Amino acid sequence: MKLDILIKNDNLSIQNSIISKIRDLINYKNLEPGDKLPSERMLSEKFDVTRSNVREAIQKLEFYGLLKSIPQSGTFVANIGVIALNGMIDDILRLDKPDFKSLVETRIVLELKTAQLAALRRTEEDLVDIKQALDAYSEKVLRGEEAIQEDLLFHLSIAKAGKNSTLNTLMLMITPEIITNFEQYHVCDKKLAISGIKEHTAIFESIRDQDAVRGKEEMRTHFKNLYEYCNNKI
User: Fold this and answer.
1) Do 124 and 80 share a structural domain?
2) Which helix (H) or strand (E) is 123 found in, with range?
3) Are residues 215 and 132 located together in one domain of the fold?
4) Whether 227 and 111 share a structural domain
5) Are 230 and 104 in contact (CB under 8 A)?
6) Phi, psi at residue 70, to the nearest 5°?
7) 173: which of 56, 139, 148, 152 is 20 to 30 A away, CA to CA?
8) What three-state secondary structure class fits 210?
9) With 80 as the cut, is the pLDDT of residue 168 above it?
């Protein structure tokens, strides 16, 4: 675990260094929106890093809307002013790796909304998917097995049923980190897992009945115990 953390921290340091150098390059060459950056190969040679390191840094800047990559054409400065670009890159470089509490808080905010949307927009096919995920979770818990991944797959199936691609993407982004932290801190104990069956069932039933208000409240109840547990555990 310590080795994994050291590797992640080292990769983040390299990535931030490349992002900083890309910003300096844009400023030095007075690149404007629509101007093309040097190729990944040229940047890797210039910065003395691997092409994969450069690619990851570019992808991060592209995610935040500061660069735009076009297949077979290259990477371009997005349509944003230099002052705003510099400010946003400074903010990106200051971002800390999210701690477990932050991830849980973010997940709660997202899931209260996805439960509402799922109740309003779900299809019969969505109900089948949610029920299958619920059954898979319940079966593992009742066998006394860890069901972290099944738990998260249940919630992802609800996000999918909400038919909001942005919320769905955000859930997919934070899910791997949540799984890692659950396993690291061993916060999913038997008592919480057993109560989770009842809570998951109530959430499913509210979505089945297309009751958005109840869906939100059942999701809030579900996370109340988890959030309090995390506050005491971490």
Assistant:
1) no
2) none
3) yes
4) yes
5) yes
6) -120, 120
7) 139
8) coil
9) yes
Q: Are residues 76 and 13 in the same domain?
A: yes
In this structure, are 6 and 74 located in the same domain? yes
44's CB contacts (< 8 A; 6+ apart) are 50, 51, 53, 54
Digit-coded pLDDT (tens) for 109-137:
999 999 999 999 999 999 999 999 999 99
Query: What are the tens digits of pLDDT across the range 54-100?
Result: 999 999 899 888 999 998 899 999 988 888 888 999 888 887 666 67
Looking at residue 185, its pLDDT comes to 52
For residue 227, the enclosing domain spans: 100-233
35: left (phi over 0), alpha (psi -120 to 50) or beta: beta
Q: Which of 12-16, 22-26, 63-67 has the highest mean pLDDT?
A: 22-26
pLDDT at 181: 66
DSSP state of 147: -
Name which of 227, 98, 118, 229 is nearest 173 in CA terms: 98
Mean per-residue pLDDT over the chain, rounded:
85
Residues 129 and 190 in one domain: yes
- Per DSSP, helices labelled H in the chain are 2-28, 40-47, 51-63, 82-94, 100-121, 124-142, 148-161, 165-185, 190-208, 212-233
- How many domains, in total, are found in the chain? 2
Q: Is 226 helix (H, G, I), strand (E, B) or coil?
A: helix
Using CB atoms within 10 A of its CB, is residue 138 exposed (0-12), middle (13-18) or buried (19+)?
A: buried
